[in-house]
Amino acid sequence: MKTSNLLIKDSLLALGSGVVMGAVISSFSDGSFWFGWLKSGLLTAILLLGLIRVWRLAGAGRTLALLMLVAFTLRVAFGIFLNQGLPQLGFDNPVQNTGYVFSDAHDRDQAAYQIAISGKAWLPQIKANIATDQYGGLLAFSALVYWIFSADVHRPLLMVLISAAAMAAGLAFLFAFVHRKWGNKVALIAGWVFALYPDSILLGSSQMREPILIGLTCLLLWSVQNLKSKPLLSTIFALVISSVTCLFSVPVAGAAFTLVLGMVFFEWLHDQTKMQTKRNAILLFAVFLVLVGLTGWYWLKESLSYEFSMAVSGSGWITALLDQYGEQYQIPLITFYGLTQPLLPAALVDSSLPIWKGIAIFRAAGWFFIIPFLLYAFAAVIKNRKEEKGSQLIFISLALAAWILISSLRAGGDQWDNPRYRTTFLPWIAILVGWVWMHLRQGKHPWFWRIVSMEVIFIFVFLDWYLYRNFNWGPAIPFPYLILFLGASIVLILAGGFIWDKKITGKKLR
Question: What are the angstrom distances between the C-alpha of 314 and each of 15, 307, 319, 403, 472?
Fold first, then answer.
């Protein structure tokens, strides 16, 4: 089919779908239904046309179409549910009374609409609202959207449409990248993880910066896949994408650029034949990583004291352990606590409102499902380092581990900011989970299930703690003894696994 005919076909499909979805959005928004239908339908049609063209660019397969459709519609539907449900089912505060999950989104989105309708110069207002958006990019972009499509009345669901579209587009670019690197099966699993991961659904149905950051990160990954054949064009494209990402978050842009650069570097290194060239390149890259680490530490250290104090005041078991063993264990305890957030046992016994209890369980179940795959991946990629993409997987796993630790330090035990920072690395989480999933299908891997058993014990130990603490149910076991039981169980599983593999079966660790 000719390009012009294909574009016309795509435009008609986008327009028809936009008319239907625009009516849905307008029916759940304030103001005139007909005017809202026109504006919402136009924006939706533009976004859908963009998604269709991205789908074609990424390969235009049926599987990818299904993944993108699920990712987009799921986030739009959940965004409508939250927008309409929170004022009725949530807590009585300004954020939830206006249908927002995140207070950051509320403050920034409200400010963006006021800027859009003010009729005054935007730049001074953006500077004046620096507290609502540190980098100003999302604030300015939101104001532009409202100025064009919703100047008559504030329609927050328009930004939900953009968030959902950004995630769906990011999924397409990620799928195309992973398909080329690791094959269709890994790409399929990574795509479903990306589409269904609870925190990505929650963020993708909100007026937050993370969906745009994740979409840009996936685009950055996709932009370098033809670096060998088109080095100049790929480099320029990657630099432009990174510069745009900086408008929304400089730290995330820097982290994403570093990780993508590392993947490019190790792919290039694999093709080198001269040992001296490899040594010099590794030394130079190591110096670069040290500089990145020092810059990251400078950014991180400013907030540690405050975040640690918030984590201690907000967690009963952290307070109990610090009182028992001393302040010298503050950093490891809070870091460990941050790694478990959102904490599934706490979510299961939470006595909050039903809508928030449901969201808490949904988010925690997603994270605890992912944890065994990531823990297993950190060891499995090293064992399989001789594979063609082995060095890239090792770099991804180490970078992801570092970012998850940074997220835990940066936001302590916060059950919102900590997972939000972590989810910005969703593309690499999806890649590792996809790779591990396929790795598990190729044979028996007892260490993965041993990790799962450790997690199950962890869940039941802390479930007992929270049940007794909140409802006085279960045995009154002192908290230090619960920790000792947990530690002993983990040691027993680890030791038993090593003995079984080495002495009984005589097989190597798998």
Answer: 49, 10, 9, 23, 20
